[in-house]
Amino acid sequence: MPNHTSDALPRRIADAHVDAYTALDPITGTYLGVPESSRHLPDFSPSGQEAVASLTRTTLDRLAEAEKRPGAEDERERRCARLLRERLTAELAVHEADEPLRTVSNLHSPLHAVRDVFTITPTDTDEDWAAVAARLRAVPAALEGYRASLAEGLARKLPGGPRQVATVVGQLAEWIGTDGGWFREFTAPGPEALRTELDEGAAAATGALAALRDWLREVYAPAVEGAPDVVGRERYTRFARLWNGTDLDLDEAYAYGWGEFHRLLGEMRTEAEKILPGAATPWQALAHLDTHGAHIEGVEEVRRWLQQLMDEAIEALDGTHFDLAERVKRVESRIAPPGTAAAPYYSPPSEDFSRPGRTWLPTMGRTRFPVYDLVSTWYHEGVPGHHLQLAQWTHVAGRLSRYQATLGQVSANAEGWALYAERLMDELGFLADPERRLGYLDCQMMRAVRVIIDIGMHLELEIPAHSPFHPGERWTPALAQEFFARHSSHPAPYVESELVRYLGMPGQAIGYKLGERAWLTGRAAARRAHGAAFDLKAWHMAALSQGSLGLDDLVAELSVL
């Protein structure tokens, strides 16, 4: 970390941490738009992980000193300091529990970070492609570091979950392919002048994927056979703090999930009756829409349709419910590369907006896309959801700190806003059509189910007596998958992918509903405080301009805006 932090206040300490962190993690550098990061990949070995932890400890020490200096009591400094301490303390707790030595996930792991970063690495010029070739050559060492961490985990009797391992082996097989694999396809548009370098780099990267697949299949999978896929209360509590920025009352959250389940089920039945009178369940009506409802045919056609949906939302909301800067209005619809998890996702803009925010749709081999399943989801991923929040953070980073706008993101804050955004569009009348509204409620139901099964299966809680499903039994992953499948419109491969995601990212999936509850509670408190003078547009922009906050602080800050 640069020496100029010796007499700095918290915001400067935080931003120096971003600089030092991106030097250790070039993947984060690429997401931020740091050009020199494009040639490199992180060290995922145990020593590389310890280097990040050492930086974290140093920053916490410097923060403690910074808070003693004149000026640290300034509101902007105080808010940044609180976030920085909470985030770094939560991250360090996970590291010191050796969790990175057993990280196997179908969505969130060093392996996935390595593949995904290529989708946002610049490829506009020959110089960009030369950097891509260098990064491809770095893939074998990065994946070897990840393998070394997992091997160290085995040596310390810290196994990853068998179900996650089997899923990742399948993902690797898809990425490797039979005709050169994903990396060869990715480099195909590169310039002929660099063809040899790109082909050799793609082959080396694909070879590294194959080596990792073989090791996972032949060494790691047999070693973890019989290990639990769930993590238990102690580990879950640690992860819940990491993803949510608060020490949750997990039993209260579990009960809240059930309350939302029953509320939403009643609303879904009302909407389902409008679509398919006499339907036995709302999901029977949704299955009817899969065949007979409005839909988009074709992969490129659905990409363009989603782009239009976001463009129309920006036009309708700007000036009425939001005040958007021109660069925040730019967002791109993309198709996700094959072999990703099933759920759509969003990638934020670079710090200079040279790379815009992007939404990503995994097609899972489909070419027909029911509209009910897309509209609310794109209000969540795009506008007014993730894009408006994370792009606005980037836009106002100069008034906050780089850390508050980027590295300090709290998952439950962002996912809570995005779920609030879906609800906002319903409140504003954008989901009046029964198909779209039932799709919205199905999305809401999935987030309530996540709270129930994520907490329930990892803590092996009892299913309550008021449940329509196996009352009195204890949750297991098998029961969780069956419950999810019964209460979702999604096909079996999606349900399977989602369950593996929850097993590999304990505590993350609950942040959608719990985060939405925090946003709604804060809005209601602000509305009560201002009375008839409450201005929703002004509140939205103030809320979106405060940067990241954990759920510990979010309600308090939103309530006084």
TrEMBL record:
Alphabetized InterPro entries for the sequence: DUF885
Domain of life: Bacteria
Protein's recorded name: DUF885 domain-containing protein
Organism, as annotated: Streptomyces gamaensis
Lineage: Bacteria, Bacillati, Actinomycetota, Actinomycetes, Kitasatosporales
